[in-house]
Amino acid sequence: MSFFKTFINSPVGPKTTHFWGPVANWGFVAAAMADIDKPPEMLSGNMTGVMCVYSALCMRFAWMVRPRNYLLLACHASNETVQLYQLSRWAKGQGYLQMKEDKTPST
């Protein structure tokens, strides 16, 4: 009971935005995971890139804010991982990550 009461009243407990913000942000991770089965042509490179930058900035914020928000850090680290995977799928689908052939003629 003491642990539960301490958690409820903590600075990052469910009475604060330090708790509910990360809980809501897990929706980004769930959406990216749901898009894994979609073809790369359906992905938006711009939006995926923006989500990567957003998660990187939020990870820094979660680390620097006092008290440290480990739930937000974990959420955005997970989102960064999934979004980078999606960005690599998009880049491969666009042909950006293909090996380029040497165009010099051999003699």
UniProtKB/TrEMBL annotation:
Any one Gene Ontology biological process term? pyruvate import into mitochondria
Q: Which UniProt keywords apply?
A: Membrane, Mitochondrion, Mitochondrion inner membrane, Transmembrane, Transmembrane helix, Transport
Record Pfam families: MPC
The UniProt entry's GO CC annotations, sorted and at most eight, read: mitochondrial inner membrane
Name the InterPro entries on file.
MPC (IPR005336)
Q: How does it sit in the membrane?
A: Multi-pass membrane protein
Segments passing through the bilayer: none
Endpoints of the signal sequence: none
Q: Where does the record place it?
A: Mitochondrion inner membrane
As for what it does, the entry says: Mediates the uptake of pyruvate into mitochondria.
Q: Could you say which protein family the record assigns here?
A: Belongs to the mitochondrial pyruvate carrier (MPC) (TC 2.A.105) family.
Quote the protein name from its UniProt record: Mitochondrial pyruvate carrier
Q: Which organism is it from?
A: Mikania micrantha (bitter vine)
